[in-house]
Amino acid sequence: MSVINGGYVEHNERLLRLLNVCRRAPSLARTKALHALTITLHFSLHQPVFVGNNIVHIYASQGEFSSAAKVFDKMPERNAVSFNTMIGAYSKCEDVEKAFDVFSDMRAFGYLPTQSTVAGLLSCTSLDLRAGVQLHGLSLQNGLLWADAFVGTSLLCLYGRFGLLENATRVFEAMSTKSLVTWNSMMSLLGQNGFIDESLSLFRELVRMQASLSECSLLGVLSGLSSEEDLEIGEQLHCLGVKKGLDREVSVVNSLISAYGKCCNGRAAEKIFEEAVSRDTISWNTIISITAKSENPLKALTIFASMSEQGVSANESTFVGVVNSCARVEMLKFGRTIHGMVIKKGYGTDVFVGSALIDLYVKCDNLEDSRLCFDDICEKNVVSWNSLISGYADKNSSEVCISLFLHMLRLGFRPNEFTFSSFLKTCGSPEIKQLHSVVIKTGYEENDYVLSSLISSYVKNGLISDALVLHDGSTARFFVAPSNIIAGMYNRSGLYLESLKLISMLEYPDDISWNIAIAACSRAAKHSEALELFKHKLQSRILPDNYSYASVLSTCTELCDLAVGSSIHCLIAKTGFHRADAFVCNLLINMYGKCGSIRSAVKIFDEAREKNLVTWTALISSLGIHGYAHEAFKKFGEMVSLGFKPDRVSFVSMLTVCRHSGLVKEGMDLIQRMKSDYGVEPEMEHYRCGVDLLVRNGYTKDAEKFIAEMPFPPDASVWRTFLEGCKRFIVER
């Protein structure tokens, strides 16, 4: 008897050891062998239910759910753990119906649900909200919510999946016992839904409790950082991660790289990536994506090359980032190379990679290849349709856009705001109202983005009354973008007061609104109001851009206010003179020239990175006004030698130089050579300048002859100039 008992115990001990080995290092072959052994030893097993539960669990952990179900169904005896294990297995494979069938059987056999039962059901991501609420009620009825943190954590995750943050918060606050996982889950839910302050508040409370933070604690808060304003918080969390030694975890490294990227600090993201102890494919993909969107997108290609050299395998996300980088700099040749790698890897049919390739070819003016990439995508989504429609819209291919849009609707795709805005770019008058009706049917008539595109399209096609009716008869009048479009239209039509009235009604005007208002004041000769608005814009902490500077510099020029103009120049230099475009530089030269500071005008000209014809003309005009005729002619010669072809305005400036310096011969010679040497036909303004030059210097007879020889009848301005010059000459004599 003792020998038999000894063998019995030995078999059970060996079986338990084998179970532990399988759980630690599961493999299907090993599990099947163990399963066969348990069947052979079934009648001599000391704990058959315990062994059966473990076999079910090991099969489920390897994704062998049908095998797990067979073992469960053939178990002669079961306990609550058996049912919980099978419920967990079905929940893992998203079979919520079978999970609830097992749950029903469990209750029929008289077993009360435990925390594992409810948590297992709640963990199924395909569980609908109604069933989740019923499980919440069952948990309250059986006191499972207060027993430990298991059920409560699963409940708040359920509500979080459905975006019911208030319900999740109520569950969190009602929990008497909270685990670290509970805190991490709640912080992550708040962060991912944009409630960064609330997420950070929970994190601080967790730190004050001196809880042992995990990497998930940092991940939850870092996931909520989304803008430059959150940079300081990101830096503090980074420091805390270093202090706690969590910065060595690859998941934390990836989140820090991503957070710095979202907070517009690409350099910090690159530094973390370079100094990381451990990196995975996600690390490489994240830094490639960040650098692809940076000011130097070519760096993403360099990082991609390093990734390949280090033997890290690229996936779909990698190629999306690299292709986007090629699209940014319009590198078609290298983009084609990447496309070849995509095909070789078998990612050409992926919707995200395909959409990126469509965008690349669209930006490189290759619509044929973009269409081929579109056709290669197996499961298209709205983004891929939008990319292609946008490409044809940019090329004004309205017929193709209409065809694509109709085909998209026939296939059952629901257009979104980007679809409508892209299509509206190319719409003519007949199509706008038809598309407007589709917008209403699909429920986008109150969408800010779509409304702006509709109003812009109406204005572009000359349907002003329709644009005004749409703006005034909808919520568009409360939105910034549509109001900006109408206000801009008023400005172009010279209705500056209407423009100002509309902008003043906006509760939160944006940068464009301020620019339109400043421009309206400047053009309406309300110069002091324009400067006052510019001051208010600065006080609102909205950084001025080139459009703001253009309006306010024009105002300073009209007022001949050198002090304010110089202050504006200082502000431009302080915020980054390299950002000032050629238009702003030209206005600065003109402003200094009109205000009498010729040295400053020359300095701006010399420092300008980009010089165009207007830049040269502005300097020549400024030199002429102050009597530097020799220097003006010298600059004119330099301009021509550099390949700039003078236009009508250039010649008006040169004739003004001659007028101010009394260079009659040079001025008249210039008019004679306009057509022959420069291919510019003299216009009425040039003849008026010639008449003024002659009569100012006493050549009244020559002026009269000059008028008589004009190729077209002189207008009132020419005769006025002649008569005023004659009168002035008589008075001086």
Architecture overview:
There is one protein chain. With 733 residues, the protein is mainly α. Helices cover 74% and strands 0% of the residues. The protein has 44 helices and no strands.
Q: Could you say what the CATH architecture of the domain at 613-732 is?
A: Alpha Horseshoe
Percent in strands: under 5%
Bulk shape: elongated
Please give the share of residues in helix: over 70%
Indicate the low-confidence ranges by residue numbers: 1-6
Q: How many helical stretches?
A: 44
Q: What is the arithmetic mean of pLDDT?
A: 86
Main β-sheet description: none
Q: Write out the CATH superfamily name of the domain at 613-732.
A: Tetratricopeptide repeat domain
Number of strands: 0
CATH domain fold name of the domain at 613-732? Serine Threonine Protein Phosphatase 5, Tetratricopeptide repeat
CATH class of the domain at 613-732: Mainly Alpha
Write the layout of secondary structure elements.
Elements: H1 2-24, H2 28-40, H3 48-61, H4 65-74, H5 80-92, H6 96-108, H7 115-122, H8 129-141, H9 144-147, H10 149-161, H11 165-174, H12 180-192, H13 196-208, H14 215-222, H15 231-244, H16 250-262, H17 266-275, H18 281-292, H19 298-309, H20 316-329, H21 332-345, H22 351-363, H23 367-376, H24 382-394, H25 398-410, H26 417-425, H27 429-441, H28 448-460, H29 464-472, H30 480-492, H31 496-504, H32 511-523, H33 527-539, H34 546-559, H35 562-576, H36 582-594, H37 598-607, H38 613-625, H39 629-641, H40 648-661, H41 664-678, H42 684-696, H43 700-708, H44 716-732
